[in-house]
Design goal:
With 463 residues, the chain is an alpha/beta fold. The chain is built from 14 helices and 14 strands. The strands form three sheets. The protein has a seven-stranded mixed sheet with strand order 4-10-9-8-7-5-6, with helices on both faces. A four-stranded mixed sheet has the order 1-2-3-13. Helix 2 runs antiparallel to helix 11 and helix 13 crosses helix 14. The two termini are 31 Å apart. The C terminus is likely disordered.
């Protein structure tokens, strides 16, 4: 099977690297993440869950614009709303009714939302949440878990911290998901100094149950406990230490439930950052939360910029949220995601690769975890799998950002491509062949390494 023709992609990239630093606007859309010299570098159109590159190769897409396209590319209803708004104005000299309309939708459906303000990127929402928490508590330090955007307060904790004043590194302290002791240690080592805990409510594993002999049926059957899980314990610790709890639901919002992971796991934070799925790829984010904290944005905490009330994103969000509700999109994502995850793991097991390869996470946003095995490194294995999936018309970066337009037929085509790919991989490993000789492009690399209290490494692919 031949590799995709990428002539036009490569021509464009040769121009780009001369005038665009790094060649890409978003790190994880760049060649370091997609098998450089084999994979395409530019997409020119998308429809539903399909995308076409500059050389007209067609792919079933599981990256979906780095996860905002919850309804799929070029959704008719969202596009119609944006076109209609564009005809009467995209931004105005005074406020616009859409600000109230979308805020009312969020207050109605997001458990933590009593008041709302809008931004444009997820990092806008997480960063203003940090400012609010510091203003409320009078404290400076942050406990965090997960990825939270490109702003100084967070990126200071990574190896991409050039240009950031060193004092930022002293203000952020990471803890480990599902390890409550690690969070307790952060508070113990920084007594009366932690302003807030900011975390993704779920990354890959489900929040661990903290009830001995739990009688919750869901907990026993699917490891999903909504009565006393890790998130509940985190909330208790925050309350005990007079720190705010912030959920970064930039990715999880609207996917696990309309009200996000906080609704799904029955834990209401003080503040919530939303983006991505809120508007199906038209730029918009939101910070929502309790009135007593959000009210500080009226005068005391400054959060203002020209495009804060820009109407195309708001029009898209109004149409998007209504459609998510009407079509019960989270239910669809869970259904097709369960089918995909279960069958992919069956295929992995059929090729006897389950000791280092596994599809993990929640069905609506699963990820293939890859471990080193013997002399084969995880990034080599990932690159090979990605290469062979590209060859078979699948755009993949280890995680599966399913959309409303991913149907069973798309999943079946993808499973067939995985089956063929993993059959080849199993032979390589069984015969102890050189996997590098089978890779026709460059190895993919991590986005960044996180320099944390646990010296752990992150390989994030959703920003």
């Amino acid at each position: 099977m031949k590799k995709p023709i990428i002539t036009n992609s490569n021509k464009l990239y040769r121009k780009a690297i001369k005038i665009i630093p790094g060649g890409s606007q978003t790190f994880s859309k760049g060649p370091s993440q997609f098998t450089n010299n084999f994979a395409p570098k530019y997409l020119k159109k998308g429809k539903g869950c399909k995308a076409w590159d500059e050389d007209n190769n067609k792919y079933i897409d599981y990256v979906m614009g780095c996860q905002p396209l919850i309804l799929g590319y070029a959704d008719r209803d969202v596009n119609r709303a944006v076109h209609k708004q564009l005809e009467i104005g995209s931004t105005f000299s005074l406020m616009n009714k859409l600000e109230v309309d979308v805020a009312e939708l969020l207050v109605k459906h997001i458990p933590s939302a009593e008041m709302v303000r809008f931004g444009k990127n997820g990092g806008d929402a997480t960063t203003i949440a940090i400012k609010i928490a510091r203003a409320v508590t009078g404290k400076q330090k942050i406990a965090f878990c997960g990825y939270h955007g490109w702003h100084d307060w967070f990126i200071a904790s990574t190896d991409k911290s050039n240009g950031i004043p060193n004092f930022n590194k002293q203000l952020v302290h990471s803890f480990e998901y599902n390890n409550i002791e690690s969070l307790e240690n952060v508070f113990a080592n920084n007594k009366n100094e932690i302003a807030c805990v900011i975390m993704e409510p779920i990354t890959v594993p489900e929040p661990k149950c903290f009830t001995k002999n739990c009688t919750n049926k869901a907990c026993k059957t699917s490891n999903i406990c909504k009565k006393n899980n890790f998130l509940h314990e985190v909330k208790k610790i925050c309350k005990k230490n007079n720190a705010l709890l912030i959920f970064d639901e930039v990715v999880t919002g609207f996917r696990y439930a309309i009200g996000g992971a906080q609704e799904y796991y029955n834990v209401t934070p003080d503040l919530t950052a939303l983006a991505k799925g809120i508007s199906n790829g038209i730029p918009l984010s939101a910070i929502v939360g309790k009135k007593e904290y959000m009210s500080l944005l009226g005068d005391d905490v400054f959060f203002s910029f020209t495009y804060g009330g820009e109407c195309l994103g708001l029009a898209a969000a109004k149409a998007c949220i209504k459609k998510l509700i009407k079509e019960k999109v989270p239910k669809h994502l869970n259904s097709v995601g369960s089918y995909y995850k279960d069958n992919l793991n069956k295929i992995i097991k059929s090729h006897k690769l389950e000791h280092f390869l596994f599809c993990d996470g929640h069905p609506c946003r699963s990820i293939v975890t890859i471990k080193d095995i013997r002399n084969y490194k995880n990034l080599e294995i990932k690159t090979f799998i990605q290469q062979e999936l590209f060859r078979r018309g699948i755009l993949w970066a280890a995680y599966h950002s399913l959309s409303f337009m991913h149907k069973k037929s798309d999943i079946n085509k993808t499973l067939k491509a995985f089956d063929e790919t993993l059959e080849i991989l199993s032979k390589i490993i069984k015969l102890n062949l050189d996997i590098k000789s089978k890779i026709e492009g460059d190895l993919v690399s991590p986005v960044f390494r996180k320099v944390s209290d646990f010296n752990s490494f992150i390989d994030k692919k959703n920003n």
